[in-house]
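Quick review question:
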């Protein structure tokens, strides 16, 4: 039987116009933004691939849930529908809502960690790293070696290196490790999934040493579907069942509902430990709110409850992973080097390999981000020296990041295949003239998190 096109499994009920601009307008807008796409107005962006966080399109059911939201301070039915959904999808007994993922992380680390502790992970996301450090503990990344090789097409580059975990426990002692964390999928490592075999192996090591295992579950559904596509023995298993199997190996999780919750805000921390949950609820009351709303409106809890079930629909996940793969495969076929294989939520272009004539300290990723905006009004994000490079505060000397990537993150259910076709055309049109572009330099940078507010200047003539 011939394979049919994988279509968007929805039709469109509400539309949001997007605005075309001319290359001349974009050159002016970019200059006014100091060549930093974070400083553009989103109305001036045609296709916004800055992030997949909080940018999902909600379904008709979710909007109906928004109307049904009950805003009672305590004991709202919206909370109980949310709690039921989390218990059904994840299987944890204790569920604590938070305003987004990082609040869940703070509550987890503040209740589990002490100064001097060590928290191993496949790779900590920025906010889990920062929240670990904020309680005086040390985050340690233990990715498998293939996770650091962009062109290696290994299927589970998000895996944690179990040998290194055992060596770390041996060296430091299990009592200094209050938890191990697995990020599903591994966002900082190219959106790459973790295999069920790796989850089981990590869980066994944790259990042998009495260490709790927590999941950073932001993209759990995409990870579960990639297990189904890539791991032996899962091809015929319902994806909801794969998700339950993942969490059956864990003691709890943190979640940002802005990702695989298909919601625009929200999150939670969940656990099977009632004593820990009691402490966490007390901390929640101090900074987030009463335990049946946790800093969210009742309507947000409804949207999340519905989103957590919708995200596991197989036709949705088939379309989701197909659109990311389609973007990656089409530009790779046109000679653009990407992090292989395409992951769950984004395509990462290897800007160092794509623009080898631009040295790292002339910011090839920044060049690519600026040029994709000039070419097609597309906004991506630099994940290279601008974001992770360092400037010596005394000498002003810059040191580059280990990789120069540009991330194109696809918001969920927002863009259609012709939008993706347009992205491919714009990227390949730029590829055809890439030799003519040069680098950038900073004209302003803040001391911390400089990528958000930096200003730049091109070191070449933009030719617009
Ligand atoms: C987004 C994200 C978080 C933090 O969630 P927020 O809702 O942005 O606070 C944590 N971990 C991962 C892997 C993420 O992608």
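Suggested answer, residue by residue:
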């Amino acid at each position: 039987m011939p394979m049919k096109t994988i279509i968007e499994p929805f039709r469109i009920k509400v539309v949001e116009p997007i605005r075309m601009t001319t290359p001349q307008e974009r050159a002016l807008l970019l200059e006014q933004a100091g060549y930093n796409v974070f400083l553009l107005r989103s109305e001036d962006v045609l296709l916004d691939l800055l992030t997949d966080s909080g940018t999902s399109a909600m379904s008709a059911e979710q909007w109906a849930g928004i109307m049904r939201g009950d805003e009672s301070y305590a004991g709202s039915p919206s909370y109980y529908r949310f709690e039921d959904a989390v218990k059904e999808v994840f299987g944890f007994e204790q569920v604590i809502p938070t305003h987004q993922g990082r609040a869940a992380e703070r509550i987890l680390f503040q209740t589990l960690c002490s100064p001097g502790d060590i928290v191993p992970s496949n790779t900590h996301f920025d906010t889990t790293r920062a929240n670990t450090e904020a309680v005086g503990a040390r985050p340690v990344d233990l990715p498998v070696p293939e996770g650091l090789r962009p062109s290696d097409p290994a299927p589970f580059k998000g895996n944690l290196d179990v040998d290194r975990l055992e060596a770390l426990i041996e060296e430091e002692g299990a009592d200094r490790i209050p938890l191990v964390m697995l990020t599903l999928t591994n966002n900082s490592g190219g959106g790459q999934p973790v295999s069920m075999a790796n989850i089981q192996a990590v869980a066994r090591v944790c259990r042998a040493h009495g260490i709790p295992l927590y999941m950073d579950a932001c993209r759990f559904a995409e990870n579960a579907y990639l297990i189904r596509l890539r791991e032996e023995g899962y091809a015929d298993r319902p994806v909801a069942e794969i998700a339950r199997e993942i969490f059956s190996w864990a003691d709890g999780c943190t979640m940002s509902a802005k990702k695989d919750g298909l919601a625009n805000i929200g999150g939670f921390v969940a656990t099977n430990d009632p004593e820990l949950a009691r402490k966490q609820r007390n901390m929640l009351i101090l900074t987030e709110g009463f335990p049946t709303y946790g800093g969210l409106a009742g309507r947000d809890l409804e949207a999340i409850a519905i989103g957590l079930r919708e995200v596991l629909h197989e036709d949705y996940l088939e379309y989701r992973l197909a659109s990311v793969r389609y973007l990656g495969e089409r530009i790779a076929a046109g000679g653009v080097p990407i992090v292989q294989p395409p992951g769950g939520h984004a395509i990462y272009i290897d800007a160092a390999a794509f623009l080898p004539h631009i040295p790292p300290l002339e910011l090839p990723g920044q060049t690519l981000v600026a040029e994709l905006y000039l070419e097609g009004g597309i906004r991506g994000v630099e994940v290279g020296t601008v974001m992770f490079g360092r400037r010596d505060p005394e000498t002003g000397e810059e040191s580059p990041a280990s990789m120069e990537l540009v991330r194109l993150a696809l918001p969920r259910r927002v863009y259609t295949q012709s939008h993706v076709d347009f992205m491919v055309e714009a990227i390949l049109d730029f590829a055809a003239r890439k030799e003519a572009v040069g680098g950038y330099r900073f004209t302003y940078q803040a001391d911390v998190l400089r990528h958000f507010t930096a200003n730049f200047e091109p070191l070449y003539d933009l030719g617009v």
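Why it works: The domain at 23-52+313-458 is CATH 3.90.1150.10 (Aspartate Aminotransferase, domain 1). The longest helix spans residues 314-333.
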